[in-house]
Queue: 2 jobs
Job 1
Amino acid sequence: MKNTALFLILRRMRAPLLMLIAAYAVSILGLVIIPGVDADGLPQQLGFFHAFYIITYTATTTGFGELPGPFSDAQRLWITISLYISVIAWLYAIGALITMLRDSALRQLISQNRFAGQVRRLNDPFHIICGYGDTGSVVVKSMIDNKLAVVVIERDQERLNELMLENLPVHVPALCGDASLPGNLIMAGLKQPYCCGILALCRDDQVNLKIAITGRLLNPGIKVVSRAQTHDTEDNLASFGTDAIINPFDTFADRLALALHSPDMHMIYEWLKAIPGTPLPERLNPPHGTWVLCGYGRFGKAVQHSLELEHLSTVIIENDPEKTQAPKNVIVGRGTEAVTLKAARIEKAVGIVAGTDDDANNLSIIVTARELNPKLFLVARQNDRDNDALFEAARLDLVMQRSRVLSRQILALIAVPLLSDFLALARKQNKEWAQGLIDYLRPVLGGVAPDLWTVTVTKEESPAVEEWRESGKKFSLLHLLQDPYDREQRLQCIPLLLQRGKDRQLLPSEDLEIQVGDGILFCGRDGVAARQFRTLHNRQIIHYLVTGETLPEGIVWRRFVARKN
Amino acid sequence: MNIEKVIFSFFIVLALTLNFGFFLGESDNPNHHNVYEFFAVLVVNLIATVLKFGERTQTGAVLLATSLVADLELIAAAFVWTYAANISGTGVTPEVMGTIISLAGGALVANIVSVVLLVLEISAQRR
């Protein structure tokens, strides 16, 4: 119920308030009845008004003295008694109020009410993010950078305190509670028309499952994205139609396989998924040969699978072969000692993957392995985000950080949905195509990771194009690539993908005529999207871009030109 | 038997009867209306209001509303009385008494509504 907190306050204030009323009533009544004396020493009784006045200043222990006139001794006695009664009543009332406001249950109720109110007032499309851990925090920050509204549910109050200290440019409504409870998800706006997606990013797979199925059932229209640690969970999530399931280990292993298979294609992935404005990631050239895998957990298995797909041989080092169901020829040990690594013939290997679930061990493996074989390609798994500095100092070729892998994958899905389509199509192309695209992208991007955006040709998003086309004239993709201020100049951007109905067209050609409903994915430099926005909204600019002549603006000037002709 | 209900019923009926007692008499004759009785009406009404705080039922909410109406009118009457007796210097004239009694009459109606609601609620839960 909406006003539960208010009802609770009122209910608990009953006793203190009754006590106050009773104390005042008795004191006032007594003061009115007890005889006093006037200035001439004659008997005189106080009225209710004066009695109320005296008790008011006495009860608050203001102590004005004997006002409105000197009291009789009987009155003095009664006022003394009243003072004790009423002060105790006040202390009780104030004490009760303060105790109540400090009560954690009530405070939680109040914060829940506030959260529900903030969510109700949201009038932009928003996503619900369940779990504000390492991944959640990166996702929230990047989504806000992409101007997407979010609502956060997190069980741990300490994590939420960090959210408050994050100093984000917009306020993020956050609820401290269990996201697997449907009531909390509904409070977070699951059933609201503006809710467009729910992201289950908790540590616990079971919780993520519950969130995903709640989202699916209570609001079938929204996008459900979940992270999964095991293949069991993945299958389960897929069974009820979760839109995207992200397994950080598989994603990373898949990327590694891609880098082994086609470094150029891997670079395209990295470029397009990098955080806009950061330097472009460099080319990664993992060597072909025998790889040593330390740790055969979920991560180790995923990497081994990928390497096998690329027909590379692997040597596995695992401390607990029974538990992890490692193959027979596994080398038992942690990999942190030189003996184990030598047994795995590290001097003959080309790369090593330190994939245990302990950061200290992983770093130790890397350092030892490098001493034994300085030419190794070093890959390590980083479990804790706090160890960033250590992993950076270790100068690794590739670091697998779960939250980073997850957050980049999720952002690509949520912020630029067409990017996934593009990458899926691109992957089917050959190495030469990838090489060509790299050469095409490099000069346009200028060494900085690009912005990605989607232009949709609809009446709302691009009214000028719509108007132009309605007048029967053609509008081709070329015009979106021209600078609206100087049609001879090109904007620093590239159309990556055209979406037309169910069709997807890679790298659409410039003379392609644009139709209503088209979605075009662009990548380009910072600020280009804003220029394109002008073209999409201004008919004069479109006229200029298509014909090369500037239309007179304003009524007077237009008439003047018309008469002249 | 619910002791909370008994206490509340007691105060709400007491408020009504006291209010009625004060209201009784010629409306412009200050001799017919006792200031002590008025004080009692005001205090009992305040208590009845506080007793309804935090009630989450529909009837409870309406009862709280009627009590608040009665309080408001009685406090207004108390102000009129105080002003006439202590500040204006005219004393409690028949005209002033008339005003006080009409305000108290308003509060009386609110109290009647309260009691009627109470009776209805009780008769609804026949056990």
Job 2
Amino acid sequence: MKLHRITAMLWSYYYATINSIDRLFDVFYWPILDVFIWGFMTYFIQGISEVNILSVILGGILLWVFLWRSSQDLVVYLLENFWSRNTYHLFATPLKNSELIVSLWIMGLIRSLIAFSVMGILSFLLYHFSIFNFNFLHFALFVSILVLFAWGIGLIVSSLIFIFGTRVQVLAWSTIWILQPFSCVFYPLSALPSWAAKIAVILPTTHVFEGMRASITEQTINYGSLLYSLIFVLMFLVIASVVFIWGVKKSKDNGELAKPE
Amino acid sequence: MDVIDVDKLVKYFPSKRGMVKAIDNLSLKVKKGEFFGLLGVNGAGKSTFINILSGLTLPDSGSINIFGKNFFKHEEEIKSRFNVATAYYDLSRNLTIRENLRIYAKLYGIKNPHEKIEKLAKKFMLNSLFGVRTRQLSSGERTKLVLVKSLLNDPELLFLDECTVGLDPDIAEITRDYLQQYNKETGCTIIFTSHYMQEVEQMCKRIAFMDQGRIVKIGTAKTLVHELNQQKVTLHLTDNMEKVKRLLQREKIKVIEENRDYLQFYVKNRKKVLYPILEKLVKAKIPFDDLHLQKPTLEEYFIRKSRERQK
């Protein structure tokens, strides 16, 4: 891997962001809107509940942004190249798949951190919810699992874009939301019906959000389930990387990469 | 030294009618410093061939050696030494000219990128548009941008697929001159496709004519057109147009174009066909004002071959 090619790609994402209202909206508008809507709603529920619901919901939203932005942005920035018909020139350069993957990962993480910081500041200003309420080590572990999982999802969706082209681009925005109901972002695992709980318990995200609630309410964290999540996401990431490389190869094989939009 | 050595290349693409053979057992060697033209009708396989050589499409079988090395084993190194320009693909539309060129300069690891970008942009008259986003450029300006990008890494091998499409005639001429000069000075091998036959004839030392994924003919422009073995005759007349037409009809010669004061037709053999016709005209006391003999052009060769294929 060559650092100059990874930084070249990071510069291209930076330029694409500052030149596009869409990409700026993604990182600021939607996360801010989330903080407003969920925050005000939970502020209202807080008044009729004894549980520290504000912390639980806002904590959920703040952590969710890592999964959401890291996975979605990875695919959207790849799509930017497809929409621009720039993929042809990009893949004629010595850029390696691994360099492309790493650049997309870094970009997804940076955008997640920006969105998280904005939401964190807003949550403090509006609801006096401080992100420093999190136990730092717990928080780092939660974020790591979510980001690794998001990168894996992003790579799987990207491989489908490579194989089928932009006709499946809707997956870039929709895939992550399929997981949300089963990830127990805002409610405990016990709230799910038994059939949904069976799916939820497999997902690493469920264990992260269960852990987050335990951390906020100062209950004991189940480190065993977090270790399971970590192993799961690492294996998933390796598989997703292999699928991504296979997807690029497939798109070169079926001519999709060199096909004008 | 052969810069390109392709052997028995085969590529199929899936289609609604089943698998279509886009490249059919194609073998080709191109020497260092050659300005090599690829001709063929749409769908002949020119772009697919260039896409395979650029690493954008994978062949089903066959071998590709570029700079004497196996392409798939040394892809990174080989790609850093060549570049591609095509009118069919843009650079990032949301980025300005300067931003796009900076990124590609970084991707190729170019030293002094600023200087290089300035120099090339000036050559192609893009320096006044540095801050303009690619999507706001005209198609000709976008083509120029892609050309500048293709020259950033001082390529030793350059694939130019219809790279002069949409350019104003004066810019097209500057581009052709620059490419010829670059080819001469650096010894860069250039693979060139264009629908402008004059351009191909003017620039390419060797030309391959492709049809249905195969190279059906290869040679210089002169040898290709010589194969047609015919000359275009323009006969200028003031009167007797119908008489001459009847005479040509009897000799089984087809008039390809006629106007108020001239007729055009092809003859395969001057001595055996044209001279007897002229003798008959003199004997019949049919005067003609002027006579022009024209060697066939590459365009005529292209048209003839394309029509043969359609038949």
